[in-house]
Records
---
Amino acid sequence: MDKAELDRQFSELYRAHLRDVYSYAYYRVGDHHDAEDLTEQTFLQAYRHFERAVRESDGRPLRPWLIRIAHNLAANLYRDRSRKPQTPIEDTGTLRTMHTTEDLVEGRDELARILEGIKELPDDRREALIMRFALGMDNREIARAMDRSDGATKVLIHRAIKQLEQIVSARQGGPA
Amino acid sequence: MNEGTAPDFEGLLRRALVPVEPPEDLAERLEATLTNLTEMAAEELDAWELSAMRDPRNWVRPVAAAAIGTAAGAGLVVLRVRTQQKRHRAQAATDAEFVQRMLHAAGDEIRRVLRR
C-alpha cells in the first residue's frame, strides 16, 4: 500500500475515532488537560505504527487497537507521575458540560454517585465500563482492546456492573 | 447481557458515561501536526536535527511540506492548516517573510513531536 493510501486510511481512522479516544482518555484520567495530552500522544503513536497495524488487522476494525494504545499510555502516565486523577469527574462544572439539562434535572445526584462509584472500581473493570458505555464497544472489541477472551470480557463487564451497583447502593444508604 | 442487573441501572450508566466531545483546539492542533507528519517520511522525522533548520540549504523540504501541507489529496484534514497558511500569508510583508513564518510553524510542530 502506498503512503498516500495509508495516509487517507489514517485520516478516516482519526476522524471516526477522535471522540472515542478523547472520551476514553477523559474518563480514564479524569481531567481535560491530561485527556488532551493522552489523545494527542495516542494518535501520534498510532500514526507511527499504522502500516503494521493495518497489515496485521486482517480487515478487523482498528478501534480496539487505538484504545489499547491509549490504555498503555495512560498506564505510563500514572506510573511516571505516581498519581491518580486529580480532578474529580463528578465535578459540577464538568457534569454541566457533559450532560443535558434534562439529565441534570432528573438525576444529577444519581449520575454523580455513579461517576464517583466508577472511580472506586478496579482499573480493568472501570475501563471495561468506559469502553462499553462511553464508547459503545461490543464484547469482542473490548476483548481485543484488553487482550482477553470474549468470555472473560463478558464476565468482567457483568462483575463490574454488579460491583458498581453495590457501591452506588451503599452510597445511597440502601442494601449492598 | 447481564442477568440479574437492573436494566435501568445500565441506562443510568449510559447517561453517566456520555461520550465527551474533544475541545476544538485539540482537533485543530492534532490535524495540523498529523498533516505535517504526512508530508515527511518517517525516517526523515526520526533523523531530524533542528540545527539543520538554520542552514538555508535544508529549508526546501520543510518549507515545501508546510506550504503544500494543505493541498488536496494530502489525506488528513486540512482546513485549519489552510487557515493558518492564509493568516501567515496575510501577515507576511514579503514572500521571504511568509516562508520564514511557515518554516517557524513547521519547526514548532516538529519540536512538539520530538519532545514526546
Note: Residues 62-83 of chain B have pLDDT under 50 and may be disordered.
---
Amino acid sequence: MDADSKNEPTYPMKNYTGDDHNRINYERSVQQPQDVELLTSNERPAVTRVFGTSVPPSGLSGMIRRYAFEHSEDRYRHWLPLILADRINMMEGLVDDIKKGYFPNIASERGWRVEWKHNPKKMAVKVAAVAVGLLIIWSLGKKQKS
Amino acid sequence: MNYRGPYRVRIEQKPMPELLHPEDAIVRVTRSCICGSDLHLYHGMVPDTRIGSTFGHEFTGVVEEIGPLVQNLKVGDHVLVPFNIACGRCNFCKQGLYGNCHESNPMATAVGGIFGYSHTAGGFDGGQAEYVRVPYADVGPTVIPADMDPDDAVMLTDVVPTGYQAAEMGGIKEGDTVVVFGAGPIGIMAARCAWFFGPSRVIIIDHIDYRLEFARNYAKCEAYNFKEMDDPVVFLKKATDWYGADVCIDCVGCEAEGNTLQTFSGRVMLMQAGAGTALQWAINSVKKGGIVSIVGVYGPPFNLIPIGNVLNKGITIRANQASVKRLLPRLIDHVQSGRLNPKALITHRIPLEEISDAYRLFSSKLDNCIKTVLMPSAKH
C-alpha cells in the first residue's frame, strides 16, 4: 500500500527544493550562548546555533581531543586519537572516582549479576580464562625474576 | 545513566538539565529504550564517547519547562521525541532530511545532532535519565495521541521509522524479493514494513535462533541462520534462482559477525570502523541493478566493502539516518489502524536504576531479549 511507483532515484532527498544552491545562507535560530569549551569540526565555518554541553574536554584526554580536532573528519589523525582519548578518559574516570572516595563496583557496572543469572556457564568459562591468563603472566614474571 | 568506559555504565546523580536556548524544552522521561546502536557506544566503538555521558536517543516524556520561543508545545504535553535533533530551518531540514540537520552538531559535518550519541553526534545528554534537555522543541517532539500506548509511542522515536525507512529506501516493487540482514529490532521492523511495498518474498538472515523465530512470527517472513550455511551469499543466490535478491537491506551495522577478516580488522584491531560483513553480503547477494538500503550504523572513518562489485553490478546504494519527523504522520496512522504493533517487540521492562543489568542483558542477548525499555522510578 505504500509502494512508490516513481521509485525516486534521488532518494533519500525526496523533497528536493533547490535550497542547496543557497549553500550556508539559510535561516537560523538565535545563537546558544557558549560557556563551555567546544571542540568543533574544521569542515564548518562556525558553531551551530544549538550544541551539546555534556562533559567538556579535560585532562590528558582533553589535550588529545584538541589535537584530533585540528584535523578534518577525512583524516585518521582525527578519529584514532579520539579513540585513544576515550581509553585514557576511562582511566581518568577511575582516578576521579577514587579521588572522591568512591571505589567503582566494576562487577555491578558490567552487569555480571545478570550474566551469571542467565548464562552461568559462559561466565564461568570467562572467569576461568582470565584466571588462567593471570596465572600464566604471574608465573612468567616469577620465572624471569629467578 | 553515566558511561564509565567500555562495558561499564552506572546510575549516578547529575545536575538537572537547564534551558540553554530559547527554543529548548525540559522533558521528564516516561519511557526510554536501549537501541542496538547504543551498544556501539557501550562497546567503545564510537570515537569521542566521553566518560560521564548519558546515552539514550529513544524516549518519551512530559514537558516540564519550555523556552520563551517555544510555541508548539505546552507544559504537561506528553511527547515522543525523535532521535534526530533538527532545527527545521536549514536546507536539509527543509527538504525533509531531519536526520541530516546542519545546525545541531558542531563537532562533525558527517552526522546531524542525535540525543545521547557521543560528542561525534553533538555532545547532548540523552534520555536514559529522569530529565532531558530537548533543543529545537518546536520541531521534533510530537504530542502522543491520547489513545496511543506509551510503549508504542517510544518505539516510534527510532525503531519503527528506521525499519520503515530501510524498506522505503529499498524502492521495493511489487513482486520483489527482499533480503534483510539482521534480526534485531530494526531488522524485524524492516522485514515487517517491507510488506507495505508489495514484495512477493521477504527473507531475514541472522545467527540467533530466538530472534529468527520471532521474526518469522512477527514479520511473516522466511528466516535463516547464516551459521548453518557454508556461504550466505551462495545460499541467497540459490534461494533466488541464482539471480540475486532485488533489494538487500543492511540492518546490522558495524558489529556484524560472520567474517573473520572483517571481525579481526574492524572489531578487534579497530583498523576500520567495525566489521562491514553485513554490507559486504548485501552487495554480493543483490542482483545486478539492484538496490542496497543501509540503516545499520557505521561510524567513522571507513570500512572495507566490495565497491568494485557495486560498480560492476550497477548497484544503487541508498542510506541515511531515518528522518523520523517526515515519517511520523504515516507511521502513527499505521499504528493506530492496527497495521503495525511496535510494542510487541518489547521483551523486557527494566527500572532505570538497573541500567547496568539492562545493558548487559541486551548486549549479550540474554533471556531471549529483543528490545529493552527502561522505566524511570515510580516517583516520576
Note: The longest strand of chain B covers residues 25-34.
